[in-house]
Design brief:
This protein is an all-alpha fold and 430 residues long. The protein has 20 helices and no strands. It is 75% helix and 0% strand. The longest helix has 29 residues.
């Protein structure tokens, strides 16, 4: 029976997308792995605290740097080849890290991992635009975040147990092997478009076709659409809550001022990230039902700022109430994921990869900017007091001033959201 004219089966579509998601899971796993291997890395490479932080940060530097180039390449080269090369280089970088004799080689391995694994998210969105109906795109974006958090979870207790059992270098070597197998599976199974398997594509017909322009001309063309650059700036004002608070400063805030132990505080931050990612799955279908990207996005930002104000400016919450507020802000701030569908729908289909890279770069910029900025503000307001363990003790007022930086970016996000052009969940063709 001929398959021409029929859409791809859902199982095949999700398998193709899922192999791209496998690399995204690996990307999250690699992003947080050094936090679990602090003792081993410090001991083997004789690292200072600053050097250890730099070793971890090399991943982020290259990851963010490749987002826009990844989008441009995905539009021109296709996600299959991009994901295959990305997974292969991630495996090579992981092996380099596992065998590193010096900190410089370890840094190089981390940089390769960040740049290579950084292609996963944009390539996944590109696959979703071809293999899935448009109404599924926002849900696929939310599912991607959830899968990423699963990867981060694997880099927690499971990685710690494995490293204790066989050593961190063996674990990283096995991780390299698994990533190489993912690269092979991507090449064998994934195709850029269902038409390559004899099915009808969900990718909308683009009257403009291929531009034949340089990549820089394409980038300028994308940024000529107002929503494209607005949706670069907007998401950082809300994603930074999870990436800054959940990823770094939440634990000291809870331990210093609310009586949590470090393991308890880390568990609360895990809850924040889990609910943040799980809620993002529901954002797409809800937005689709409302026929709007803009309205739920604005509502989520407003709700997040109110909840954040309660956490920051109202002291003395009981631990259960504070946990509930933190979970709630994770749920409401998950609306940032709508930015990916919003951005894709705001430009012609031929620019889908490029605009997704711009949007993802904006999300990650929130954490990159706010984490050190909050630390700088805390240091400016440090009284000189130390904890019993010799670490700096920051007063509650210092945290309040530092965390208030989020409101500034939140206000900018709301202002720019008001200036966006609503897509009503429909793809722009010109």
């Amino acid at each position: 029976m001929s398959l021409a004219g029929s859409p791809p089966p859902a199982t095949l579509a999700w398998l193709v997308w899922g192999l791209g998601a496998a690399l995204y899971l690996i990307a999250f796993y690699q992003r947080v792995a050094p936090a679990v291997l602090v003792q081993e890395l410090t001991r083997e490479f004789a690292l200072s605290g600053a050097a250890l932080g730099n070793l971890s940060a090399f991943y982020f530097y290259s990851y963010v740097a490749v987002q826009i180039p990844t989008g441009l390449i995905a539009d021109r080269w296709g996600p299959r080849r991009l994901l295959t090369v990305g997974a292969s280089l991630t495996a090579a970088g992981t092996l380099l890290f596992a065998l590193a004799p010096t900190p410089w080689v370890a840094n190089a391995g981390r940089m390769v991992i960040g740049a290579a694994a950084g292609v996963a998210f944009v390539a996944m969105l590109k696959l979703a635009s071809h293999w899935m109906p448009a109404r599924r795109f926002a849900m696929a974006s939310g599912m991607a975040l959830f899968i990423g958090v699963v990867g981060a979870t694997l880099a927690g207790a499971p990685l710690r147990l494995a490293a204790d059992a066989v050593g961190w270098r063996v674990v990283m070597g096995v991780s390299a092997l698994v990533t190489a197998l993912v690269a092979i599976a991507i090449w064998l199974v994934v195709r850029d478009d269902p038409a390559e398997r004899g099915y009808t594509s969900y990718f909308p017909h683009d009257p403009g076709g291929s531009t034949g322009q340089s990549v820089w001309a394409d980038l300028r063309a994308v940024l000529a659409y107002r929503n494209a650059w607005l949706l670069y700036v907007i998401p950082g004002g809300i994603s930074c809550i999870a990436l800054m608070f959940g990823g770094l400063w939440g634990v000291p805030f809870l331990t210093l001022h609310y009586g949590f132990s470090t393991p308890q505080a880390a568990l609360v931050m895990s809850l924040l990230l889990v609910f943040w990612s799980a809620a993002s799955i529901a954002c797409g279908p809800l937005s689709q039902k409302l026929g709007s990207r803009k309205v739920p996005y604005i509502a989520g930002v407003v709700a997040s700022m109110i909840l954040w104000a309660l956490i920051v400016w109202v002291p003395g919450w009981s631990q259960p109430v504070l946990i509930a507020l933190i979970v709630a802000v994770g749920i409401t701030s998950s609306v940032f994921v709508l930015g990916f569908a919003f951005a894709k729908e705001s430009v012609p289909p031929r620019y889908a990869g490029t605009v997704s890279g711009i949007a993802n770069m904006g999300v990650m910029t929130g954490g990159m900017v706010m984490q050190p900025l909050v630390g700088w503000m805390l240091d400016r307001n440090w009284s000189g007091a130390l904890t019993a363990g010799g670490a700096r003790f920051y007063e509650l007022g210092a945290f309040q001033q530092a965390f208030s930086l989020v409101f500034l970016w939140g206000a900018i996000s709301l202002t720019l959201l008001a200036l966006t052009q609503e897509t009503h969940c429909r793809q722009r063709l010109r």
